[in-house]
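User: As part of a screening pipeline, I want to sanity-check one entry by hand. Below is the sequence and the SMILES for pyridoxal-5'-phosphate. Please return the complex as structure tokens so I can compare it with the automated output.
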Amino acid sequence: MRFYSTSDPKHSVSFKEAVFTSLPPNKGLYFPVEIPRLDCHTLDHLSNRSLVSIGLEMMKPFVEEDVPEEVLDRIIHETLDFELPIKQVSEQIHVLELYHGPTWAFKDVGARFLARCMGYFTETTGKEIDILVATSGDTGGAVAAGFFKVPGTRVTILYPKGKVSEVQEKQLTTWGENISAYSVEGTFDDCQALVKRAFLDEDLNKKLNLSSANSINVARFLPQSIYYAQVARLLSHPKTVISVPSGNYGNLTAGLFGWKMGLPIHRFIAASNLNKVVPDYLETASYDPRDSVSTYSNAMDVGAPSNFERMLELFEGNHAKMSQMISGYHLNDQQTLDAMKQCLDSNHYLTDPHGVIAYQALKDRLKPDEMGVFLETAHPVKFLPVVDHVLDEPANFQDKTKELMSRKQSVIELSGDYEGFRNCLLD
Ligand SMILES: *Cc1c(COP(=O)(O)O)cnc(C)c1O
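Assistant: Here is the complex for your manual check:
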């Protein structure tokens, strides 16, 4: 399958090239020329099929020119090598827990698939690549875990010093081997600015093969559509509503791809915090990206979501069609805490500050004949300072975190100036 640039449909590349370059040369994002529908027989028998075999069928058309079927099969097995359980939370609401992977967030799925595809390509071409990631917390850990010891790859992670949680910091800084972590004096935006500058540095790009592991990369967002099939496999309801905590909208876009491939999904909710650019668009038809504001659900603090362009592409820029399929919802920080507390008190289910917004959206917006599923995008332990606000006594997750906390950190401090960062990369 070819992938074209949303800003220049005449420009198209192979899957492999889209993976290595991440972004088309003249802005826009890569988008597949087609979203093939799953076979009717598969769709009629989802509940009798393993998630891996459905995943293989979903991904195959996108990658088959560049990845042989037996390699894809291995990649999908390794990508989905953890539980993706669905639990009932209240009468009308279920949760799909996406946090049983190595870094306890849904990003493990996309990061693992991307890392293994890149690993396969570096192996077959002998090329070495340098992956740069700026992270506000969750992305860096998932990318590090995905790429750890993948031959031919070197990963450099930049995170804002003092602005990630303790668990997140451990998951960023305790790898070694082909993974390096830098703590940057400044904000997430400063980290991102350093990475962007490196990509534009011609001299540096002559010396290193730089690549990105951001959710703009097709190999990161596409495999996320597989777990939407888990909902259809394990629950059958004619009107299933899936509520997705959203920031850069890679996760929701993947859900829309699943729906286009034929998965039985009635509609989606885009659950957001005060960075509610997309909910505002859905309501008013005017799109107004802005600077992000910081909230308790900081993995969703995105003021100009990259994947919105892919959502527009899916609905041919038609606001009426998009808003028929997706409705927006948002909570502020106080409402987020209240919802966490309410969910815990009434259902004995502890949520994290991202998933809980999607939970509350279902609670407020489900119609009587619908059934809701929210995605729990990270384990609450990753956001302990916030989670502790809603618990009567501080949470005790020692069993879960003990081994991680005992690992030795290795981190390089950066002042935020570009030359210093550049020298480290070339070292
Ligand atoms: C990254 C992240 C999100 C947002 O996902 P997008 O695909 O960027 O919309 C939501 N929740 C958590 C916990 C995350 O880490």
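Points to compare against the pipeline: Residues 105, 107, 138, 215, 245-251, 299-300, 354, 377-378 surround pyridoxal-5'-phosphate (CB under 6 Å). The longest helix spans residues 107-125.
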